[in-house]
Amino acid sequence: MGKATVYCEKCGEMIPEEDFAKGKAVHFESKDYCQACKAEIAHLLPKGGGVGVSKRSSGMMPSVKRSSGILPAVQAPDPRPPSGLAKAPASLRPKAGTPNAFKSPLPGVGGHGRSRHEDSRPNHEQGAGLSKNAIVAIVGGGGILLVIVIVLVMQSMNAKAEQERKERLERNAVEALQECQVYFKDHPEDFDGTLAKIAQGRPKAEQAEGTNYYSRLVTLENEVKKKKDEFLQKQVFRDRLHDLVEKGKRDLATIPPALRELQRLPTEAGKLGEDFGREFARKVGEERRVLQETYVRESIRLVEADLKDLTKVESIEPFKKRYEAILTDIPDLDATLRSQVLNKIKELETQWFLLAEQALAQISADVDRLIEAKKFEEALRRTNDFPKKFELTPSYPKKLALEDKVKRARERARETPKAQPPGGGDGSGGGGNGPTGGADGANLEVLDTILLLHSGTDLGGWKTVGIGNKPSTVEWSCPEAGVIHAVNGSADGGGAIFKGSERWLEYDYEFDVKCVKGDFIVIVLVSGTGWCPVKMPAPIPRDQFHRFRVSVTTSDVVIQRPDRKESISIRDSHSGSKSGKVGFGLIGGDEAYFRNPQVTVHKLSQ
Q1: I want to staple 551 with a disulfide (CB 3.0 to 4.6 A). Which of 287, 477, 558, 570 is the partner?
Q2: pLDDT recorded at residue 2
Q3: d(CA 50, CA 70)
Q4: Collapsing DSSP states into helix, strand and coil, what is residue 117?
Q5: Which of 294-303, 411-420, 566-575 has the highest mean pLDDT?
Q6: Residue 146: its pLDDT value, please?
């Protein structure tokens, strides 16, 4: 068997086989390197072996056991050239000046060991051998290139796989963040649901290294927690409002305190933000209106339920007070609702007054019939049938006038009419016509009935004036129907209220008064002379009512106390037509009550 010719991969020099055995040459990664070129790849050689002897056959490479580091021996090719082969081309021949370039390092193969016959072999056999070795060298170089290509391909594949991995993790992080953002936008008050989704998406955001998705997710989480805290604080106010409204619907008595609490809630809620404070105040306003409507409606219903038959009621005052309590319980009651309550009070009074008028009308008809029959005592008893429960109605003064009518008719029947002496009916004071004055005292035409129908400070059309060109310092009020309370808070001022008409000529009227402090005056307006203040006869016992009668003629004003037969006459030096007005006044810190200011003004007989 001949020995294979081996050439260096880098320099192309033939390598003797013994150089492999001695370690001078190496076989590394299917390539052969001479002793000179071995140093250039020394850094690539494995430590402790891994290289071996190269043995080649003509154009054939046996399998190599890399674990031993020694190439297995191969059979040398037949040196005889095949017949018909052409001479090897010059390009494959050994270079000139290279000794033994094509000699085999093995004995008997090429070089000095060849026979003369062998040396005389045709050149085409040598050319064939050169071609195979060149192919082996080329194949060896191609292997390195293939390895490099494979390494580059693997690196490229690894880099691509890593990039794809990063892109996949980033997509996952983006999807997790967007899912949380969309859910929070669609469910702005489901804070726990959003926080749960953020917790699920946190690992995905953490894996996306080199991105800001994790920090953005944390920012969203902090925002959700902050909004949740704000929502819970606002929810405290919403829940309180809801509880107050629902409790008020179940229990009417809880509405007034609930309304008072709702007055302050919007101010406290405004501390959580201007927008929330404004929206909460709007909602509170709506609910307060509902509660007020509920309270007014149910309160009126309860009063009407107890007031089924007005004819069986002894007094409307308790029912009026229940209506008035609505206004007291809710001082800031809506104007429309307040008007409803006031209308209910007025409606109740109107119905009550109507009942009184109906009762008086029946009595009046009977009294007129009895007077005509000259049954005066029976007529007086009939006037006393007027129900006592109607004493505070406008009909009560008419009942008193009806009594006077009976008494005067009885007087006329008993006596012949006489002229009154100067100064009044009992001779004291001036000489004008008194209540029983006039030609025969029978002509008692009613000029007007002054009615005080409203409670509170509405004086039912009475006018307030000052005294002595000063503004009035008197406070007037009506604690109950038919009663005027007057208090003068000034020591040097005063004032009065009056009501009257230009057509009141030759008239008289009656009223009751109770002095609490100081004195009181009667104001009479006579055209051309101004106010005529008249101080009442003194002393007047305190804390009880006393009746007075005032008669006004063209020449005199007479004030009488029928129970004591006293009178005061104030003569007017002026003559001519005088217009009359009814009035009451106080001076110097006085305080008094006037009862039945719904006086009936009579025209005196001429």
Answers
A1: 558
A2: 52
A3: 8
A4: helix
A5: 294-303
A6: 87
Burial of 16-42, coded b for 16+ CB within 10 Å and e otherwise, reads: bbebbeeeebbbbebbbbbbebbeebe
| Cis ω for the linkage preceding 539 (within 30 of 0) | yes
pLDDT for the residue 103 = 44
pLDDT, tens only, 476-525: 877 776 678 888 877 777 777 777 776 677 777 777 888 877 766 666 55
pLDDT value of position 512: 80
For residue 371 the two structure tokens come to: 């007077």
Q: Identify whether the C-beta of residue 101 lies closer than 8 Å to the C-beta of residue 92.
A: no
Those residues whose C-beta lies under 8 Å from the C-beta of residue 306, and which sit 6 or more positions away, are 319
* The pLDDT of residue 438 is above 70: no
Query: What is the spatial distance between Cα 319 and Cα 268, in angstroms, rounded to a whole number?
Result: 38
Cβ pair 296, 333 in contact under 8 A: yes
Q: Where are the alpha helices (DSSP H) in 25-94?
A: 35-38
53-88 per-position pLDDT tens digit: 444 433 334 433 333 343 444 444 554 444 444 444
Pairing of strands 474-480, 483-488: antiparallel
- Which residues, in sequence order, are CB contacts of 506 under 8 Å at separation 6+? 433, 552, 553, 554, 603, 604, 606
CB 122 within 8 A of CB 85: yes
| Residue-level pLDDT at 483 | 76
Helix, strand or coil, per DSSP, at residue 93: coil
- pLDDT at position 606, please? 45
pLDDT recorded at residue 476: 81
**Paired tokens of 421:** 């002496």
Give 568-572's long-range contacts (Cβ < 8 A, gap of 24+): 568/429, 568/534, 568/537, 569/423, 569/424, 569/429, 569/430, 569/431, 569/432, 570/430, 570/532, 570/534, 571/430, 571/432, 572/526, 572/529, 572/532
User: Where is pLDDT greater, at 461 or 15?
Assistant: 15
Residue 298 and residue 252 in contact, taking contact as beta carbons nearer than 8 Å: yes
Q: What is the Cα 425 distance to its own chain's centre?
A: 77
Could you tell me how many residues make up the chain?
A: 606
Do 532 and 570 contact (CB within 8 A), yes or no? yes
510 DSSP β-pair partners: 549
**Residue 99 half-sphere exposure toward CB, CA atoms < 13 A:** 2
Residue 105's nearest CA partner among 17, 24, 169 is 17
Q: In this structure, is the dihedral angle defined by the CA atoms of residues 433, 434, 439 and 444, taken in order, positive or negative? A: positive
In this structure, how many other beta carbons lie within 10 angstroms of the beta carbon of residue 525?
20
pLDDT for 575 beyond 80:
no
CB 131 within 8 A of CB 5: no
Residue with tokens 């046996």: 62
Residue 395 confidence (pLDDT) above 70: yes
Do 467 and 492 contact (CB within 8 A), yes or no? no
- 91/121 Cα distance (integer angstroms): 19
Residue burial 571-582, b: 16+ Cβ < 10 Å; e: rest: bbeeeeebbbbb
pLDDT value for 539: 57
- Tokens 């008692």 locate to 444
> Do 565 and 493 form a contact (C-beta atoms < 8 A)?
no
Cα–Cα distance between 482 and 397 in angstroms, integer? Answer: 10
